[in-house]
Amino acid sequence: MSDINKYALITGATNGIGYELAKLFANDKYNLVIVARSEAELQAKAQEFRSYGVEVVTIAKDLFKSEDAFALCQEIQSKGIQVDVLVNNAGQGVYGLFKDTDIDRELDIISLNIASTIILTKHFVKEMVARNSGKILNLVSIASEVPGPWQSVYHATKAFVLSFSEALRSELKDTEITVTALQPGATDTDFFNKADMQSSKAVLDREALSDPADVAKDGYEALMAGKDKVVSGFKNKVQVALGNITPDTILAEQTKKQQEPIEKL
Q1: Domain count, the chain
Q2: Do 165 and 173 contact (CB within 8 A), yes or no?
Q3: Is Oxidoreductase among the key words of this record (predicted)?
Q4: Does 246 fall in a domain?
Q5: 83-88 and 56-60 as β-strands: parallel, antiparallel, unpaired?
Q6: What are the residue numbers of the active site?
Q7: Which of 80, 86, 122, 140 qualifies as a FRET site for 179, CA 20 to 30 Å off?
Q8: 67 in a domain, yes or no?
């Protein structure tokens, strides 16, 4: 058991930014509740995280399904675990023109990126309010700031989560509970493979992608400092700042050019 006996619940904890965040929490002696779809991946990562001297609880759930999000809440409650930090990290996208993309895949992404985030936050924020302590980190993305041709649904889900995070933070401002939105840019994770985005200009230059460890560190530090949101990476900070003074119609055209398939070059 860890010294401080606190628990962080992290969804999508077996790879990418979620995995890097889990290491940071474990290093600071937070016990972990890690969630992903693959039991085998969870067990492998749990073994690694336990080397930090913390307790690791693994729960395999498919957060594309709202019923699994509700079941996750119940399972944690039945184990008597108090979640001190909730990290809503799990999220996916789908690539293509909206007229061509698969509606079932898009509804799944809305369920994962939005519905599961809302379900988990609703459950744990009630517990946090009852004891007047807790922290929430929502993985947002700078995609939340701009319309996203070629990823119209993904960008819209992230805009939802950013707006939700900022509203919830305001509702909780007279409590000891903080809500932080982490806004990375394109990051070197499995996101692009899962989104079938390998043909996009956005992933043409792999060296331009952010390191997930750097993104996680930015998010972790902002969370611990109680900040409302953090844009990870200097280039992304500049992009968001410029975007704030650029009309959405122009931003949409810029994003369309950035994300269109390479064969259109």
Answers
A1: 1
A2: no
A3: yes
A4: yes
A5: unpaired
A6: 154, 158
A7: 80
A8: yes
